[in-house]
Amino acid sequence: AEAEKRLPEDFREQYTRHIRGRGADAMAMVDGENCGGCYQVLTANLMSQLFMEKTVQCQVCGRMLYLAEDRSPGGKRGKK
Fold first, then answer.
1. What is the C-alpha separation between 61 and 44, in angstroms, rounded?
2. Which residues 6+ apart lie within 8 Å of 63 measured at CB?
3. What pLDDT sits at residue 77?
């Protein structure tokens, strides 16, 4: 709930609607270059959009995708 308060206003409505509709399966962390929910390989275009902090949904399972906060080489990127 605390993190949700910090979401950008223009994103918050879409996020809330998506969470309400899909529940716990609404979001998935990117694992390498794969959706963390269905493991579909993400296109280079989707990955670029994620790095530009755009709202991206998996084209297969529909989950909203997000990158790990620590994307440094030794960080949590790709780990759950």
1. 18
2. 22, 25, 26, 27, 28, 35, 37, 38, 57
3. 44
The reported pLDDT for the residue numbered 71 is 63
Q: Helices then strands (H, E): number in the chain?
A: 3, 3
* Six token digits for residue 52: 């530009």
Rg from Cα positions in the chain = 12
Nearest to residue 69, comparing CAs of 79, 60, 61, 58?
A: 79
pTM of the model: 0.74
Query: Tokens 């949590």 appear where?
Result: 76
d(CA 10, CA 33): 26
